[in-house]
Amino acid sequence: MSYLIGWILFAVYVGGIWKFLSGYRRTNFNSGLPGRITLALLWPVLLVSNKSYRRNFQKALKGR
Length: 64
Known about the structure:
Elements: H1 2-22, H2 33-41, H3 43-49, H4 51-62
Helix pairs in contact: 1-2, 3-4
């Protein structure tokens, strides 16, 4: 059972990275590759702790 939860969390994490990178051009962030990778990999932490990142994450996911 714990393996299943781990795989589900991993899938959500990777899915969040993919969705964020797919819509990255809609955000206000710089287009440099190192920053893009860092923001994508840290999305769960930044989503919880940073209001500006949350707004940009929503833009990336939903195109607003």
